[in-house]
Amino acid sequence: MQDAILRLGAMVEKHIQEAVQALKERDTALASRVIEQDRQVDEFELEVEETCIRLIALHQPVAKDLRIVTTGISLTHELERMGDLAVNIAERTLELCEEPQLKPLIDLPRMAEHAEQMLRRSLDAYIREDVALALEVCDSDDLLDQLNAQVFRELVSFMIENPRTIGVATRLILVGRYLERFGDHATNIAEMVVYMVEGRNIRHAKKLGKYKPGGQGTPGGQDGSPLAERQKS
Questions:
Q1: What is the CATH number of the domain that holds 137?
Q2: Cα separation of 71 and 38, whole Å?
Q3: Helix, strand, or coil here: 216?
Q4: How many separate domains does the chain show?
Q5: Which of 2, 31, 43, 84 is the most exposed place for a label (fewest CB within 10 A)?
Q6: How far from each other are the two terminal CA atoms of the chain, in whole angstroms?
Q7: pLDDT truncated to tens, each residue of the chain (233 aa)?
Q8: Is residue 212 classed as helix, strand or coil in its secondary structure?
Q9: What is the C-alpha to C-alpha distance for residues 150 and 127, in angstroms, rounded to an integer?
């Protein structure tokens, strides 16, 4: 199951790399190929999900083993959504290639590189069951948000100065948003790792004011939560 998830992750990483490369090089053929390859991600997601369901049905895992399998199902959904975001970037690329280039791309490739690194590190944390690394991925999402805000401000300034750039600038803003969402999904994977290993749920912890950088999250399964009590019983 874990090997299959890693293969799916590698597939998604390749697609996002190719989508951004197509954007930088204005390569319509490569962008079209990314769109066509999305079917492979969808099919692979279903295969991994079926494997996880069989594991539950045949082996009836409990406690941490059950968390490992259910986390595997959730991870495949996150990876499939990341593959969809690569397709979205490729689709915007095809549209942008029909228009004059607005400016050299600098911050968007930086965003893509950081987002790809977040994906690799979150999957590494998953395989190694490394909570500390998973929490580092969660903390690193702030940089991606900052870069996205910077891209947005710059492109809005272009639109204000020259309304004829609105179409191109809007599509580039969307690309920034897709990359920011890609990082959000990597963060979701990292949060699942914490739950899988320790049984504590840190989802929405930042919004609820219960998350502290460096490993302090919301109380979880091993800290006296109802889930922990059910597992003990």
A1: 1.20.58.220
A2: 22
A3: strand
A4: 1
A5: 43
A6: 28
A7: 899 999 999 999 999 999 999 999 999 999 999 999 999 999 999 999 999 999 999 999 998 899 999 999 999 999 999 999 999 999 999 999 999 999 889 999 999 999 999 999 999 999 999 999 999 999 999 999 999 999 999 999 999 999 999 999 999 999 999 999 999 999 999 999 999 999 888 876 655 455 555 544 443 333 333 333 333 33
A8: strand
A9: 33
